[in-house]
Amino acid sequence: MTVAELPITGYLDRLSARPGERLTAHVSVAGGGRYRVRLLRAISLDANPKGPGRRFEDLSRLFDRSFDGHRQPIAIGSYARVEPAPVRDAGRARTWTALVWTGLPVRDQVVLSDEGAGNGARAVLATGAEGAEIRLTWPGGVARLASGVPLKPRRWYRLWASARPDGRVRVGQQPLEGGEARVADGEAPGLSLPTGGVVLIAAEEAAAPRHHFAGKIEAPAIFSRELTPWPDPRFLPRDGRIAAWDFGRGIDTDAIHDTGVQGCHGSLVNSPVRAVVGAGWSGEETCWRHAPQDYAAIHFHPGDLGDCGWRPDFEIEIPDELRSGSYVLHLTCEAGEDWLPFFVRPRRDAPTAKIAVLVSTFTYQAYANFARSIADATYRARVAAFSAYPHIPNDYPIYGRSTYNLHEDGSGVSISSRLRPILNMRPGYVAANDPIGSGARHYVADHHLLAWLEDKGFAFDVVTDEDLDDEGVTALASYRVVLTGSHPEYHTARMLDALEAYKGRGGRIAYLGGNGFYWRIARDPARPHLIEVRRAEGGVRMWAAEPGEYHHMLDGQLGGMWRRSRRPPQQLVGVGFTVQGGYEATHYRRSPASWDDPRASWIFAGIDEEIIGDYGLCGGGAAGFELDRADPMLGTPDNAVILARSERHPASFAVVPEDLLAPGRSTAHGPPDDFMRADMVYFETPGGGAVFSVGSITFLGSLWRNGFEGPVSKLLYNVVSRFQS
Q1: 449 near 477, Cβ under 8 Å?
Q2: Cystine design at 624: which of 135, 202, 494, 698 (Cβ 3.0–4.6 Å)?
């Protein structure tokens, strides 16, 4: 099968750096040949010709080089590798076994592969259309034997296969939740059993792993004797163990532990999902840290991609003269082009600007390579009409999926890596089929703010989510004001702690988006390129975590919405997610307080309009797609001033499920329509700080109107000017 690849693409080892630091680029040129790299500063990235357009500052005088390009393959799919493998005696019988839970029982997929090096033999325990099967190959011979009964999806089975040096072969399967075992016998004359070599779990062929398993595997083991019938399908016998891997150990690592006498431990490749319920889950504990024996399974997927693993192609040292901001490396070859985005922070020993833009790189990563149903002919025509970024994730599954997609076995993607090409984090990418606007979201939409700051002459620095998570409040301490982008949705506890501490010390925050501070994510310092989300306990989501699988594997903490951990967004910024709609928008109507309240009327200085934002590049208005409301019951401060409120919402808009107790009944025990709004709020903090929040994803798209003019632009100018002074 031919796999679609971009003509040229790549990724960087990090998404931010300071002058004097180095970034490493990993590039693949599908057809080989020379390619060129130029440095550009990204000013505006919206492909819509009715907006500011795509604008760059050419910095090729600082970096313009050519390299020999090579195709770099992607080994997608997760598995475990044990090397060196345990010592096996080719003269003794062998049994391979594991507990499995599969979502795709009829596809050819490998559970355990015992690959010999000394004699070239291989034994594979697998599942397929005929149920459990064993496949044996050796010099001069091939044998295959299947149970004859397909496995049923989403059920636990004991699978086993035995082979003897005299050629007798047996394979069996038994459901754990009742039902008879199915056993088949066969002969393999001249059989040689594997010795030396590598053991793979959830794939075969160590040189180029394939036939990846889609489902959970628990307690894989190899025995030096024939085991049949199986004594008890839930347990492993003690006698004759060559190796037995306990996945309940080291759940927060990429290591797997062999409990056998040889101690042949292994490692996981491409970040399969751990902290999943195993065959023996009792339901009495829902956190794997409290009962690791109940979570002694790993969920493998053919589409997992923890790291492309490409070799480094070149390094770039960030020039001293680069000011903080957004940059790209423009890659070009004979067959095409691509961009590698990154952000530059100020030098550690240099004065900072007064304004910091907190760039939502964890949100970009959560949505990385989101394959969407909107990629129809109308959408593709829109992309072509804009001469927008032409490549969309739907067409390139080889680069992995987003946490908004499903694996092929129906489970949700919970792990996302930045060590791969991210197609929807590219200049000019169109994220939504927006018939009257740009369809811009995330990376592209946030450049509406950067372009506006540039146009208005505000000096600013950038801080990424990862920087904030690594450094805490220190990353923000020198700034008078922090501005968010359009959709700062994904945060760790350290990030929220840092923002609360910044606010408590007198910092000013302008939350310029919607549906922010919503999902809790996990990171592991040992694998900083990964983020994890468990979509637990409600919320607007494309999939739901399985019962008992609400705690992250990377940090052991409860996943899901921050609201479920008693940290709703209203506590931090005064508003929180309340309405989800189509990619369309409406406007705000000013409140009486916006005219008369001296605490906040300055925000509207020079603005005579009562209607705010009935125009815009995103959905046609400033209040759209996803909206946030103020709610004192969820933590909106008592001194918060409601400045404006959205109205005349499109028919697609609906109150989010976490605000519903029952159909027609909200959590406030009234009609759900009472929550149908975006609130623009302002409040001051006891430490001398302040917060301004707009509660809408599409707000930044309305900064532009025949240039950066109009009431939305004027309003934000007033806020930023006051906050930085």
Answers
A1: no
A2: 698
Bridge partners, residue 620, by sequence: none
Q: How far apart are CA 171 and CA 186, in angstroms?
A: 9
CA–CA separation, 282 vs 294, rounded Å? 7
- Helices 711-724, 442-456: axis angle to 10 degrees equals 70
CB–CB of 299/281 below 8 Å?
A: no
Q: What is the spatial distance between Cα 57 and Cα 326, in angstroms, rounded to a whole number?
A: 11
- CA 307 from chain center: how many Å? 13
Antiparallel, parallel or unpaired: β 79-82 and 266-269: antiparallel
Residue closest to 275 by CA, chosen among 293, 257, 302: 293
When pLDDT is averaged across residues 404-408 and rounded to a whole number, the result is 96
How sure is the predictor about 112, in pLDDT bands with cuts at 50, 70 and 90? very high
SS3 (DSSP) at 629: strand
How far apart are alpha carbons 465 and 14 in whole angstroms?
Answer: 12
116 to 162, 407, 418: CA distances (angstroms): 16, 31, 35
Where does the pLDDT of residue 3 fall: very low under 50, low under 70, confident under 90, or very high at 90 and above?
confident
**Which pair of tokens denotes residue 2?**
């031919």
Report the alpha-carbon distance of residue 511 to residue 509 in Å, rounded: 6
Q: Which residues pair with 142 in a beta bridge?
A: 137
- To 5 degrees, how large is the angle CA 199–CA 261–CA 236? 75
Under 8 Å between Cβ of 632 and 639: no
The average pLDDT across 591-605 equals: 96
Half-sphere exposure (CA, 13 Å, Cβ side) for 77?
24
φ, ψ of residue 104 in degrees (nearest 5): -130, 70
Q: pLDDT digit string (tens) for 236-269? A: 998 999 999 999 999 999 999 999 999 999 999 9
Tokens matching residue 336? 């095409």
